[in-house]
Write a structure and sequence with these properties.
Two copies of one chain form a homodimer.
Chain A: H1 16-33, H2 40-47, H3 51-57, H4 61-75, H5 88-104, H6 106-121, H7 123-150, H8 160-177, H9 184-196
Helix pairs in contact in A: 1-2, 1-4, 1-6, 4-6, 4-7, 5-8, 5-9, 6-7, 8-9
Chain A binds a DNA duplex (30 and 30 nucleotides) through helix 2 and helix 3.
DNA sequence: CTGTCAAGACGGATCGTCTCGTCTCGCTTC
DNA sequence: GAAGCGAGACGAGACGATCCGTCTTGACAG
């Protein structure tokens, strides 16, 4: 699992209980003490586990955090598709507002900031993130945009990757840098501006 | 200086030589050993300075890094305004391509990632960044966009903050997450897509 | 004489490695 | 299929190293 981490030795005898305890402990701890004070020793203690059990299965603190998110996202069963009511603007606003709500949620704020930090400094982890966590979600977004494209609501020669990053990039950035209030109204403004473009119509 | 850091005690006797040595050492060191291995002890040793001299004037590693950037940006004399040839699309492409080049530059990559990390976890530092480093640059961008607005090249009721984040957000995000190649062509695509909007015209 | 400086000692925290003795699993043997 | 065996993961924690942030020293400058 975890792309390249977490399954090195003979996996047969691995304790699933310890694995889960470590991942939950990591997620909870980072939310409580913050990224700076998150230590492997702390995770091991909280999980009731020897340090070696962590070092045996994960190459870095970031990899543990990553797997913790992976476990969570598998728990919530990966919503099969984005809403498609035919009203692209309304659907996009709903989804971006949900993103805003998640980014603002105290439960996820610190853990996501911690994971972002690790991704920021570890290209291998960034690749794993792109493949396992961001990738599937991005595919859902593309599906919705393709559907809109078929309905003639989006420009036919649109690069969907660019479109997605133009919609979500501003939110992510405002969250990361705290460069302004991250509100549902902001999400709406981004959707409207992106759809209509900066030029007068 | 530095908004709230760096000038606490009686500033009169402060050694400018030590200050500069510390900031240059910090910037160079983080580029060499990476953010994870950047230590105050290392900075002090490289700068030929006592640790206390750092702890006396800066509250955190992030504040040192921030001041290092501040020193650099003051060195390059804050370009007075963005190009304004009348061709908005060309001007924006030129500026975004310059941003791409800077983000891709090996000299700045690690230091900027380190500063981003500190900003990510320190709201006070984020505020200082917004005020002292990002703010002035953002004002220049707004000036250029206002000029275009007057020329009727941009929608009159445009929220310029949203516009700016829609242009730069995708670049920043792709750099942070390494979610794709950060090329001049990508910058061009962002500009074109943002100006025209996602809808067919 | 007061405050900054370079240098570095200090206790505490965490790192990553290692060594224990225990426990669990899967295979063999009867 | 029950009993025994061996490999490997397990919890626990000792270990030297590094870095933290504070504190002390003596030199020096205003």
């Amino acid at each position: 699992m975890t792309a390249q981490h977490g399954t090195a030795p003979g996996t047969r005898r691995r304790s699933e209980a310890s694995r889960r305890a470590i991942l939950t402990a990591a997620f909870e701890l980072v939310g409580e003490v913050g990224y700076a004070k998150l230590s492997i020793e702390g995770i091991a203690a909280r999980a009731g586990v020897g340090k070696q059990t962590i070092y045996r299965w994960w190459p870095s603190k970031g990899a543990v955090l990553f797997d913790a998110f992976l476990m969570l996202s598998e728990g919530t069963g990966d919503s099969p598709a984005l809403p498609d009511t035919g009203d692209l603007e309304a659907d996009l606003k709903a989804v971006l507002r949900a993103t805003v709500a998640e980014l603002n949620s105290p439960r996820y704020d610190e853990p996501m900031r911690a994971l972002s930090t690790e991704i920021l400094h570890d290209p291998a982890l960034a690749a794993a993130y792109a493949e396992r966590l961001d990738g599937p979600m991005k595919e859902l977004k593309k599906q919705r945009l393709r559907s809109a494209q078929r309905a003639g609501q989006l420009s036919g020669d649109l690069d969907l990757d660019v479109a997605i990053e133009m919609l979500w990039g501003p939110l992510l950035n405002r969250w990361l840098q705290r460069s302004g209030p991250l509100t549902p109204e902001y999400a709406d403004a981004v959707v409207e501006t992106a759809l209509n473009g900066l030029r007068p119509r």
